[in-house]
Amino acid sequence: MLGSAKEAFAQESSGPHANPGGEAKTPKTKILEAGAKLLQSGSPLKPFGIYLVGFHPMKDSPEDQMEAHHYCHQVNEDFAQCTLFDGNTEDANLNGIEFIISAKLFNTLPEEEKKYWHPHNGEILSGQLVAPNIPDIAEKELMKGKMNSYGKTWHVWNTGYEGKLGDALPLGQPMLGWSFNHEGEAVPGLVEKRDKNMKIDSEEKRRQRADLKQLAKPQSGVDDLKGRFARPTKDIPGVIDTKAQEKIQ
Questions:
Q1: Which of 81, 120, 78, 111 shows the shortest CA–CA distance to 219?
Q2: CA-CA distance, 57 to 48, in Å (whole number)?
Q3: How far is CA 32 from the centre of its chain?
Q4: How far apart are CA 210 and CA 206, in angstroms?
Q5: Rounded distance, CA 169 to CA 21, Å?
Q6: How far apart are the first and last CA of the chain?
Q7: Which residues contact 228 (CB under 8 A, 6 or more apart)?
Q8: Residue 161 near residue 66, CB atoms below 8 Å
Q9: Sign of the dihedral through C-alpha 43, 46, 48, 53
Q10: Is 207 exposed, middle or buried (0-12, 13-18, 19+ CB in 10 A)?
Q11: I need a surface site. Which of 128, 147, 173, 175 has the fewest CB within 10 A?
């Protein structure tokens, strides 16, 4: 049974897109790593046990989009911190960080700070944000807890994504990541490729989460990228920008 579980996980793996520049590890480095693994605790990394996979367009260049593998630590009910990788295999590259906060904490932020935080309802209700390898009922409960939350994401290394090769080293300034908040914003094939590689059905997850729409509140940043994509887009039911809601009222 254990072997079949490992095999199933391997079939759902997603490898990195870039090979870092540099020479291969020497025997000395490998020995040092083995000793460190035995003698050092790695305590700060042990709580990062929540695995999420989603997508990030860059806020300043929305057509630059990437699949993001999040390994997260839920510090408390209102705050989580995540390391981001370009895959889920042992050779995946660390390429960013994300902090996730509740609507309660977001509402305490200065207005100038809020422009860095992207909304999550669109990712959840569209079925694009997933937590692989856990039962559907547990995944849905996790997503329910993230409704109306926000993320602050910085990608610090272009390790490659749809249509673009990665850099051999982390170069340039960090890129502020955003979220998809309307249908059609993702470049064609991006979500479908992830779903095929990891045996995920985003449309089925969307149907399973339809009742979470009643929990959705208007969020800041939903329309920040509206009109900046090369394709027609349409609204996701339940995903509303706070500014649009204010105009209606």
A1: 120
A2: 24
A3: 33
A4: 6
A5: 6
A6: 57
A7: 62
A8: yes
A9: positive
A10: exposed
A11: 173
Q: DSSP readout, the chain? A: -HHHHHHHHHHT----S---SSPPPPHHHHHHHHHHHHH---GGGTT--EEEEEEEEETTEEEEEEEEEEEEEEEETTEEEEEEES-SSTTPPEEEEEEEE-HHHHTTS-HHHHTT-EE-HHHHHTT-SB-TTS-HHHHHHHHHHHTT-EEEEEE-----BTTBPPPSS--SS-EEE----EET-SPTTHHHHHHHHHT--HHHHHHHTGGGGGG---BTTTTTTTT-SSS--EEPTT--BHHHHHHH-
In three-state form (DSSP H/G/I as H, E/B as E, the rest C), the secondary structure along 49-71 is CEEEEEEEEECCEEEEEEEEEEE
Q: What is the pLDDT of residues 24-67, one digit of tens each?
A: 767 655 555 465 465 556 688 889 999 999 999 999 999 999 99
Spatial neighbors of 109 by CB under 8 A, at least 6 apart, are 117
Phi-psi region of 161 (alpha: psi -120 to 50; beta: other; left: phi over 0): beta
Nearest to 93 by CA among 165, 40, 32, 166: 166
pLDDT digits (tens, 9 = 90+) for 209-236: 999 999 999 999 999 999 999 999 999 9
- Listed in sequence order, the residues at least 6 apart from 222 whose beta carbon sits closer than 8 Å to its beta carbon are 119, 121, 122, 181, 239, 240, 241, 242, 244
User: Structure pTM?
Assistant: 0.87
